[in-house]
Design a protein that fits this description.
This protein is of the alpha+beta class. It is built from 4 helices and 4 strands. It is about 35% helix and about 25% strand.
């Protein structure tokens, strides 16, 4: 699974209405772009996020679906009209989710029940 996560630090002038419109538009992408398996969003509550207050995470089955998302006109429109005007410095992370077994160096496909 591929996960696309965007963290947003909004300009001081960004209104709650603008932030709400952005989140609603991002959530609506699930109905517009094929390949999106799941979209979640949240609001930061810690002091460790360097000013990033909100995030959205979108799951895709593979890198091709993520690439199609980046190229999709609906995504590009949201980036230009809703994100860029109110964000100071979004942080974008795309990664392939791995299990703890893979991180430990074991091949989970070969590891069967004991």
């Amino acid at each position: 699974m591929i996960r696309h996560t965007a963290l947003f630090a909004f300009d001081n002038a960004a209104s709650d209405m603008q932030i709400g419109e952005l989140i609603a538009a991002l959530l609506a992408l699930r109905n517009e772009i094929s390949g999106i398996e799941r979209i979640v969003w949240g609001e930061n509550f810690s002091q460790r996020a360097n000013g990033h207050t909100h995030l959205v995470s979108i799951d895709f089955p593979d890198r091709a679906a993520l690439a199609a998302f980046y190229d999709h006109p609906a995504h590009k429109q949201i980036a230009e009209t809703l994100i860029k005007p109110i964000t100071a410095h979004p942080l974008i992370v795309d990664y392939e989710e791995r299990s703890s077994i893979e991180i430990a160096g074991k091949d989970s496909a070969r590891e069967g029940p004991s």
